[in-house]
């Protein structure tokens, strides 16, 4: 049952935060998701330090992202079924232990295969706090026009963590020890994750399994909805932007002899995302525009800006382009999360949100690997091509299949792409 709430006009952040019990999950949720913003960049910095290779560092970060992308929807489905607390309590310490093992192996200069093997549980056990918070907003604001404001607020919160996280991780790795970023990530996961798990009043109730014949059988996956699959493809492109920017900026700052500015440049990119998300939430759906229309416009602008990144040869120009890139990312995320909330039933919301989060992680993993290899072979300029390579194909798919972003849209055509999606779903969910 949705919490009784009224948000005047469905627009303002002040009214949004007056939603009953909102603060009981907003603050713990912010603390619990902070470590995730530090994970990938901390792995890149540590493995790059111990091996001297961006390619190996990118591979370790990529394996982490792929593992998260594969297991996140599974955790989302378990959360919908058993509840958030039941999933978080064992996952949080498991993640901290996995990160500790990865840190030790990297410091001991273990073979690459051993580091990559340790990266699997580190990524697979990432607590899915962001989707859990979004599921709480969806419950509290069920049917309210304030849902878009909540989606924008969550985008701002996510990006605020990505302003702080990379800067903090870089400062710890550069100023204290190359492993300090991962150590802090594990410690913050324990503290923040358990704090969020303790906030039970606003959590959605577990959804019972659908019954079919003798015994209980799971209902269909959220990925069976065509619009969710299309949004996952779009978010995969967003992940390519995140991953490509992380590695390309690291390589760029190393090439100019100022590695300490890496966190600052990435923070500017994330700040563009954060500020744009704040504007999206403040303006709401002005002028009769639809979330689908805003998503398509923002994604097109993102591709245009990504076309220019490879030519940025100075920190000042790269700061400007990074800010613009981030400003185009936020509307995509805000409107994508708004759309997915209207495409799925309440009992599958957390899983649907984790499919999008997992798509970002998977795109980031592929991008980190590709950007690392390109940086090793041809330098930072080549690595900056990765965001374009991820977003341009996704835009083509979005434009071609945009009708599927409406509830009850056309059924998917049974082609090779659909078969691939079903195969991926079988691996990740079943």
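-> sequence recovered:
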């Amino acid at each position: 049952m949705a919490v009784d709430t009224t948000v005047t006009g469905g627009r303002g952040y002040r009214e949004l935060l007056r939603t009953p019990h909102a603060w009981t999950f907003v603050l713990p949720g912010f603390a619990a998701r902070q470590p995730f913003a530090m994970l990938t960049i901390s792995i890149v910095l540590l493995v790059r330090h111990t091996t001297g290779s961006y390619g190996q560092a990118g591979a370790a970060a990529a394996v982490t992202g792929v593992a998260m992308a594969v297991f996140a929807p599974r955790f989302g489905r378990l959360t919908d079924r058993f509840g958030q607390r039941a999933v978080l309590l064992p996952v949080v310490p498991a993640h901290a232990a996995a990160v500790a093992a990865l840190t030790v192996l990297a410091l001991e200069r273990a073979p690459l295969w051993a580091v990559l093997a340790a990266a699997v549980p580190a990524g697979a056990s990432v607590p899915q706090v962001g989707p859990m918070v979004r599921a709480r907003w969806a419950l509290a604001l069920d049917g309210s026009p304030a849902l878009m404001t909540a989606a924008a607020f969550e985008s701002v919160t996510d990006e605020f963590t990505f302003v702080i996280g990379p800067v903090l991780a870089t400062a710890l790795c550069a100023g204290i020890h190359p492993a300090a970023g991962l150590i802090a990530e594990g410690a913050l996961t324990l503290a923040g994750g358990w704090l969020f798990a303790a906030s039970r009043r606003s959590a959605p109730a577990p959804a019972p399994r659908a019954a079919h014949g003798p015994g209980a059988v799971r209902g269909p996956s959220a990925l069976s909805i065509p619009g969710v699959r299309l949004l996952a493809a779009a978010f995969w492109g967003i992940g390519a932007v995140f991953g490509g920017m992380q590695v390309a900026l690291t390589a760029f700052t190393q090439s100019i002899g100022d590695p300490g500015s890496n966190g600052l440049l990435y923070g500017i990119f994330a700040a563009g995302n954060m500020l744009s998300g704040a504007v999206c939430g403040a303006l709401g759906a002005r002028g009769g525009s639809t979330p689908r229309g805003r998503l398509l416009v923002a994604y097109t602008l993102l591709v245009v800006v990504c076309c220019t990144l490879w030519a940025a040869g100075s920190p000042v120009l790269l700061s400007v382009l990074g800010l613009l890139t981030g400003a185009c990312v936020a509307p995509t995320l805000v409107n994508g999360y708004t759309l997915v909330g209207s495409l799925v039933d309440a009992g599958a919301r957390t899983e649907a949100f984790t499919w999008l989060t997992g798509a970002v992680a998977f795109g980031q993993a592929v991008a980190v690997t590709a950007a690392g290899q390109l940086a090793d072979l041809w330098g930072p300029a080549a690595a900056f091509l990765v965001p374009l390579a991820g977003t341009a194909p996704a835009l083509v798919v979005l434009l071609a299949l945009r009708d599927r972003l409406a509830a009850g849209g056309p059924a998917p055509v049974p082609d090779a792409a659909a078969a691939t999606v079903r195969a991926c779903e079988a691996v990740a969910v079943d």
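The CA atoms of residues 175 and 228 lie 42 Å apart.
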